[in-house]
Amino acid sequence: MFFGKKWDPRGRHCFITGGSSGTGLALAIILARNGADVSIVARNEKRLREALEILEEARENGGQVLRAYAYAVDSEAGSQAALKAASEPFGGRCPEALFLCAGAARPSYWVEQTEDTLKQGMQTSYWAQAYTALAGSKEMVKQGVKGKIVFVSSVLAFFSMVGYSPYSPGKFALRGLAESLQSELQLYEIDVHISFPPTIFTPGYQEENKTKPSITLKIEETDGGLTPEQVAAGIYKGVQSGDFHITTGWIGDTFRASTAGSSPRNSYMWDALYAAWGYVFLPAWRKTVDWQVQQHREEHYEYLRNCGFLAM
Ligand SMILES: NC(=O)C1=CN([C@@H]2O[C@H](COP(=O)(O)OP(=O)(O)OC[C@H]3O[C@@H](n4cnc5c(N)ncnc54)[C@H](OP(=O)(O)O)[C@@H]3O)[C@@H](O)[C@H]2O)C=CC1
Ligand SMILES: CCCCCCCCCCCCCCCC(=O)[C@@H](N)CO
């Protein structure tokens, strides 16, 4: 961070939403290996129990508190209840690092959306993290706990494309929220970070691929994808170094540096190089994406007729 001192999770209570699967679980394991007290939160109890067993194996010392809590965090009340439960083993003291990984994507075409699916999209991409940030900030400020809030957005908060209309807006919104909080929470010495991962091979990714339009999958294949362990290691490293925008891999770095605006930078030299490279190649890549979408028209109209959206 400033003065070169890295954040050390040892002995700190880290609270991880979405900690039963994918990136959240991988992050929980890294934090446990590094001596943190870890609370994971998700809805499904069976998966939480299994995750806790894995987490136990990552324990670094006998004194660490490793717990799992079943709550839905996509409401303020749910987030408050989860934080309260996780605070109990610590005499009511709230966690000092919040890793907000809860979320899901259901890619599909815009004309197939309804008011309900769009609201659901915001619920899983935005509110599932925003409410925990709200409940957590209130508690940290009341208790005088100086800590960290880490959002997990997506590279789809830097750009978007066909199929992601129910998801991308919420991930962009998380960026807006993180920008606001990075500024405001300095009042309380709470650091804010936001990570923008590319494709991550997780159970959630397998689930979203069940509804993903074929054209979306095809365009995405440019991105080789990362394992949850790689993404979690990148988030951990970024948080340790005090980076505000955290990206892992050259694709994320290119988009991040090309859209940084006045956001705090990671490295003036590297970000300038990535931005220069992005200035040249991003518009060219985008043209190929537009071309792929146009080539898909005929197949798409057939799809719309087959699913009954258009009369035969
Ligand atoms: N996989 C990918 O390609 C990418 C994912 N991301 C983002 O990374 C984050 C993690 O995704 P991923 O690593 O794929 O993990 P998974 O999709 O495999 O796991 C998601 C986790 O979030 C939990 N969760 C979801 N909704 C809620 C809720 N309302 N309340 C509490 N817990 C909830 C799930 O448990 P349960 O269902 O039991 O509640 C599970 O533990 C998400 O925010 C996702 O949008 C970003 C870029 C790419
Ligand atoms: C010169 C620059 C070339 C750039 C190439 C860029 C390729 C980008 C491919 C798109 C990746 C989409 C990832 C979606 C992640 C996500 O959030 C969903 N899986 C939802 O979970």
From TrEMBL:
Chief localisation class: endoplasmic reticulum
Pathway in which this enzyme or protein is active: Lipid metabolism; sphingolipid metabolism; Sphingolipid metabolism
Molecular function as annotated in GO: 3-dehydrosphinganine reductase activity
Keyword terms of this UniProt record: Endoplasmic reticulum, Lipid metabolism, NADP, Oxidoreductase, Sphingolipid metabolism
Superkingdom in the source lineage: Eukaryota
Subcellular location: Endoplasmic reticulum
CDD domains xref list: KDSR-like_SDR_c (cd08939)
Top EC class, one word: oxidoreductase
Swiss-Prot/TrEMBL GO biological process terms: 3-keto-sphinganine metabolic process; sphingolipid biosynthetic process
GO cellular component: endoplasmic reticulum membrane
Catalytic activity annotation: sphinganine + NADP(+) = 3-oxosphinganine + NADPH + H(+)
EC number(s) recorded for this UniProt protein: 1.1.1.102
Summary of the function given for this chain in its UniProt record: Catalyzes the reduction of 3'-oxosphinganine (3-ketodihydrosphingosine/KDS) to sphinganine (dihydrosphingosine/DHS), the second step of de novo sphingolipid biosynthesis.
Designated name of the protein: 3-dehydrosphinganine reductase
Originating organism: Trametes coccinea (strain BRFM310) (Pycnoporus coccineus)
